[in-house]
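Hey, can you fold this one?
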Amino acid sequence: MKLSKKCEYACLILIELARVYDEKGLLTGSVIAEKNHIPRKFFDQIANMLKRKGYIISTRGTFGGYLLAKPPSRINMAEIIRMIDGAIAPVSAASEFFYKNSPSEQNEKLIACFRDIRDYAAQKLEQLTFDMLV
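Sure. Predicted structure:
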């Protein structure tokens, strides 16, 4: 599994918003982007996606900004990774959506190994919530 920059940035955005969740604080896009070295145009694209998927809320105006739409303890890493980068499986044949003609499917023990890796990674990432990353 290799995470895209888009996924890494989305996680950084969610961590920043998790930091201020209990204070009901808003953070501006400029503050989040600057603190995490996220290009502003890229930040806007990712924030819009997180908003559409129901992870963040944005408000406009002088006192506007972003905040989490739900508690950080209810958002786990696995769901964010799957939303942005797709399956957590190390090879496509180990994915839930089995792809035929994968080289790995030629050896059942190899596929079993990759599925074990997928299951282990998925379990760990599903248990890792954003409140734990603050």
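The radius of gyration is 17 Å. Let me know if you want another pass with a different chain boundary.
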